[in-house]
Amino acid sequence: MIEVLKNIDAWLLLLINSGNNPFLDGLMWWISDKFIWIPLYLFLLFKLYQKYQYDIWKIFIVIALTIGLSDGVSSGLIKKQVKRYRPSHHLEIKDSLHLHKYQDGTYYAGGKYGFVSSHAANSVAIAFLIFLFLGRFSKHYYWMILWVLTISYSRMYLGVHYPSDIIGGILVGLISAYISYLLGVKFLKFSLKKEINPNFEA
Questions:
Q1: Sequence ranges of the domains in the chain
Q2: Architecture of domain 2-187
Q3: Angstrom distance (rounded) from CA 16 to CA 10
């Protein structure tokens, strides 16, 4: 059964990775760059400030805890313990992959281990935390989901993560955000019962 799942995992990766062209190569590389999204992070912080104003410093603490927990668990703990090679480092599949090529002729392959995806974990952690803080009435949450899916797809398109790496990262991100939020509520006295306007559209 495990071998069947591994084969499906590899097949899905190759299917995604094979749908490449020069335009998508550049686009997916751009999407996968975390620094490109700084304007988005600033925009989200602005929306949080609009709603919480002088409590925003508490949210900063929770955000820092969330990212630290998500990245620490995904990169610092799970990857080092599981030690599953990225597809771009796996001898049985790497030669079948289309990898991003630098101008100097070398290829982007990421770090040695890929389970779980830190990109998926951290983006999901941010998106879920925004949902918890802004609430289900925020009109921005739907494109946040699209943002997460796009980043996750880019990591498979670039050949550096299996679909199972992404799924594992999503779970880590969800759990990290929820734990951090609960800790923030408990120790920073952030009220879970704060009234939300049914017409709120942050």
A1: 2-187
A2: Up-down Bundle (1.20)
A3: 10
38-64 pLDDT, tens per residue?
999 999 899 888 888 888 889 999 999
| Amino acid (1-letter code) at residue 126 | I
What burial class does residue 117 get, using C-beta atoms within 10 Å of its C-beta: 0-12 exposed, 13-18 middle, 19+ buried? buried
Average pLDDT, the chain: 88
Handedness of CA 139, 143, 149, 151 (dihedral sign): negative
Which are the contacts of 179, defined by CB distance < 8 A and separation ≥ 6? 69
97-134: per-residue pLDDT in tens? 999 988 888 999 999 999 999 999 999 999 999 888 88
Beta bridge mates, 85: 113
Which residue do the tokens 């999204």 mark? 37
- pTM score above 0.85: yes
Q: DSSP secondary-structure letter at 84? A: P
Hey, what are 181's tokens?
């939020």
Q: Which amino acid is at 72?
A: G
